[in-house]
Amino acid sequence: MQRMAAQNIDSKYRLILIAAERAEQLLNGARPKMEHPSIKVARSAMEEVLEGLVAWDYGPTPEPVVEESEEGASSDNGDEVESNLGA
């Protein structure tokens, strides 16, 4: 866990996601960034991430969602209900 904190990885789930993406790169022919005693690709990818050899970020900041409201739609529905009940 200390190695995760040193790399600014905030959770073990993020570590797994980053390592999985790196393992896929290695399977597709990417060169390893360090010598690995393990022949398992997933373990090699995990070590690269924990050593800080794999650059990652959170991605672009999402833009806020602006909901479009229909003008007068809610007030018209309320008036119809009141007029039906009063009749």
Map the helices and strands.
Layout: H1 2-6, H2 12-27, H3 41-50, H4 73-86
Helix pairs in contact: 2-3
Task: Please describe the structure with a list of short key phrases separated by commas or semicolons.
mainly alpha; 52% helix; elongated
Account of the protein in words:
This protein has 87 residues and is mainly alpha-helical. It has a domain at 1-57. It is built from four helices and no strands. Helix 2 (12-27) packs across helix 3 (41-50). The longest helix is centred in the first third of the chain and has 16 residues, at 12-27. The chain is elongated.
H/I helix tally = 4
**What order do the helices and strands follow?**
HHHH
Total number of beta strands: 0
Output the structural class: mainly alpha
Radius of gyration, CA atoms, in whole angstroms: 26 Å
In whole angstroms, the N-to-C terminal distance is 70 Å
Helix content: 40-55%
Would you kindly provide a brief summary of this structure?
This protein is 52% helix and 0% strand.
